[in-house]
Amino acid sequence: MTTTDRRALLQASGLQKRFTAGTDAIHAVDGVSIDLIAGETVAIMGASGSGKTTLLHLLGGLLRPDSGILRFAGADLATLSDAALTSLRCERMGIVYQSSNLIPTLSALDNVALPMLLNGSSRTTARAAAHERLREVGLGARALHRPGQMSGGEQQRVAIARALIAKPELVLADEPTGSLDRQNSLDVCQLLHQVAADRSRSVVIVTHDPAVALLADRILVLSDGKLVSEISRADVATAEEVAIYCMRVARRNQVFAPSSPGI
Ligand SMILES: Nc1ncnc2c1ncn2[C@@H]1O[C@H](COP(=O)(O)OP(=O)(O)OP(=O)(O)O)[C@@H](O)[C@H]1O
């Protein structure tokens, strides 16, 4: 990456998000700061309930923080109306969820074309772009198949094509291999590596899978809503090393967390 490419796409500072469940207050994200450079890929790992999804939703403007600052390409998201935030998300971000969330009655092609149609593109333009994205994810020949005629991994590849349709600057993915069996997970993992290798976009990916985390330039670990550790991709060579790193971080935080029993 050249120095001119090294502009901050996303700047998060001191993000906080609390939820209430009955009488309990849950501090889901607790003072997280992250800078994401254009073209960079970051993986977020951490135990279940550590705040990964909440953080991803804050970064994508799906949730508003209680406090903290979040800038996307220099714009302070807090100053944007809900409508402006929605259009920024539709035009400049792509989101992939754990479940593909495809519309079962539409073909793969029409599912992928949908975001562009909703953004006002003509059917011809949207379908041409959708064809191109489907080819890129290796499903050009399955364009007219409905989700029910495809495997879970193929459906997830369609969902990735849909997230990429508008050529977003930022792709956010929440456990994209989480609901897949081993082979489908490997296929999707390989595709995500291709997505991350394209430096025209940045990627933030929440994952429990060390093989998926290996696609990132940096791996961040959350614990109890806090960013507790970060490692550069250059410092881990294999999925096994990522798993060992995460175990060490988890052990260290259990030992030193003031709320841990027995300390
Ligand atoms: N809408 C909500 N209302 C109340 N509590 C919530 C809400 N969303 C998340 N939480 C709580 O916030 C905490 C963080 O949740 P989050 O889903 O971000 O964790 P996570 O790390 O993504 O977990 P997992 O790996 O299991 O998906 C959890 O304690 C969760 O129960």
Automatic annotation (TrEMBL):
<feature type="domain" description="ABC transporter">
    <location>
        <begin position="10"/>
        <end position="249"/>
    </location>
</feature>
<dbReference type="InterPro" id="IPR017911">
    <property type="entry name" value="MacB-like_ATP-bd"/>
</dbReference>
<dbReference type="GO" id="GO:0022857">
    <property type="term" value="F:transmembrane transporter activity"/>
</dbReference>
<dbReference type="GO" id="GO:0005524">
    <property type="term" value="F:ATP binding"/>
</dbReference>
<keyword id="KW-0813">Transport</keyword>
<dbReference type="Pfam" id="PF00005">
    <property type="entry name" value="ABC_tran"/>
</dbReference>
<keyword id="KW-0449">Lipoprotein</keyword>
<protein>
    <submittedName>
        <fullName>Lipoprotein-releasing system ATP-binding protein LolD</fullName>
        <ecNumber>3.6.3.-</ecNumber>
    </submittedName>
</protein>
<dbReference type="InterPro" id="IPR017871">
    <property type="entry name" value="ABC_transporter-like_CS"/>
</dbReference>
<comment type="similarity">
    <text>Belongs to the ABC transporter superfamily. Macrolide exporter (TC 3.A.1.122) family.</text>
</comment>
<dbReference type="InterPro" id="IPR003593">
    <property type="entry name" value="AAA+_ATPase"/>
</dbReference>
<dbReference type="InterPro" id="IPR027417">
    <property type="entry name" value="P-loop_NTPase"/>
</dbReference>
<dbReference type="GO" id="GO:0016887">
    <property type="term" value="F:ATP hydrolysis activity"/>
</dbReference>
<dbReference type="GO" id="GO:0098796">
    <property type="term" value="C:membrane protein complex"/>
</dbReference>
<dbReference type="GO" id="GO:0005886">
    <property type="term" value="C:plasma membrane"/>
</dbReference>
<keyword id="KW-0067">ATP-binding</keyword>
<keyword id="KW-0378">Hydrolase</keyword>
<dbReference type="InterPro" id="IPR003439">
    <property type="entry name" value="ABC_transporter-like_ATP-bd"/>
</dbReference>
<dbReference type="InterPro" id="IPR015854">
    <property type="entry name" value="ABC_transpr_LolD-like"/>
</dbReference>
<keyword id="KW-0547">Nucleotide-binding</keyword>
